[in-house]
Structures are given as structure tokens and as C-alpha cells.
Design brief:
With about 110 residues, the protein is α/β, with parallel strands linked by helices. The protein contains 4 helices and 4 strands, in the order βαβααβαβ. A 4-stranded parallel sheet has the order 3-2-1-4, sandwiched between helices.
Length: about 110
Amino acid sequence: MSLIDRQHGALVLVDYQQRLMPAIHRGAEAVAHAVRLADIAHLLGLPVIGTEQNPQGLGPNVAAIRERCDTTLAKMLFDGCADGLVERLRQACGSDDGTIGDVVVAGCEA
């Protein structure tokens, strides 16, 4: 069994935006699970990165998610990589050679 290397790992919470939550089946439950994941990540010393899809149009993430993220990336593309997600991951958990370790991804549409 392989464990996550907390020096080179991160949690990414994808698009838990408050305007979208009413349309998500069991949205409140999804947010509660994400909050739990973020709290555990912080206990383990893992950085937490949030993303927000088109925040000008869809609004920000739910406050409970936003306040647990070390950084939040506004993005316009679905995967966020071209919007800077890979660079944020390298900054947060990259090794000396620039490779990114283990990343746990959670989201309502992930």
C-alpha cells in the first residue's frame, strides 16, 4: 500500500460554488464531505486548493469551502490546467525537480 507523501501532495476541491449547490443532488451533503476532506488535509499538513468556474458568472465557492482553501483559482476551462492549476500544484506540493506528487481531487462534478 502506498501512502500520500504530505510534502508533495495536495487536495483540490473543484467548483463547490454556492449558486450551483441547489442544482446538485444532495449538495449540502457534498459540501459537508468536502469540508471534512479539507479539515483532514489540514491536520495532515496537505495544502488545499480550491477552484471556481467562471466566478464572475457563477459566484464564489460556498463560504465553508472557501475559508478552508489555502488558495482559490478562478478558471474558465473545465479542467483548470490551462488556467494555472498545474502551476499552483507545483508551488504548493512540487518537488525540487518540478514534479507533482499525489493529488486528491474532489468536486460535485468531478
